[in-house]
Amino acid sequence: MLKHKNDSGQATTEYALVLLGAAVIALLVIAWATDGGGAGRIGELFDTVLSEIFNRTDSVG
Questions:
Q1: Reduced to 3 states, what is the DSSP secondary structure of residue 18?
Q2: pTM of the shown model
Q3: What is the SS3 assignment for 7?
Q4: Can you tell me the distance from the alpha carbon of 53 to that of 45, in angstroms, rounded to the nearest whole number?
Q5: 38 within 8 A of 32, measured Cβ to Cβ
Q6: Per-residue pLDDT tens for 9-35?
Q7: Is the Cβ–Cβ distance between 33 and 42 less than 8 Å?
Q8: Whole-angstrom distance, CA of residue 29 vs CA of residue 35
Q9: Distance, CA of 14 to CA of 21 (rounded, Å)
Q10: Rounded to whole angstroms, how far apart are CA atoms 46 and 42?
Q11: What are the backbone dihedrals phi and psi of residue 5, each rounded to the nearest 5 degrees, phi first?
Q12: In 3D, which of 60, 33, 29, 59 has the Cα closest to residue 45?
């Protein structure tokens, strides 16, 4: 593979694009969780996890 002298900033550019993509995905998840009805689903998931933990600790003790 030939390496050109102009390729020196390519890794920095790729890193910036990966960070930009991760930021976009994070913003989409936050928007879904707050406005798109995801907040209720996250609350239900949290309640389910806590209920399961409490049920398992009650059966042990």
A1: helix
A2: 0.49
A3: helix
A4: 12
A5: yes
A6: 678 889 999 999 999 999 888 877 777
A7: yes
A8: 10
A9: 11
A10: 6
A11: -65, -20
A12: 33
Distances (CA, A) of 12 to 19, 25, 35: 11, 20, 34
Q: Running DSSP on this structure, what letter comes out for residue 61?
A: -
**Mean pLDDT over the full length of the chain:** 80
Give, in degrees to the nearest 5, the angle at Cα 21 between 19 and 22: 65
Assess contact for 39 and 33: CB atoms under 8 A: yes
> Token digits for 4?
């050109």
Instruction: Show Cβ contacts of residue 32 under 8 Å, excluding neighbours closer than 6 positions.
Output: 38
Distances (CA, A) of 8 to 4, 12, 15, 22, 26: 8, 8, 13, 23, 29
Residue with tokens 């969780």: 33
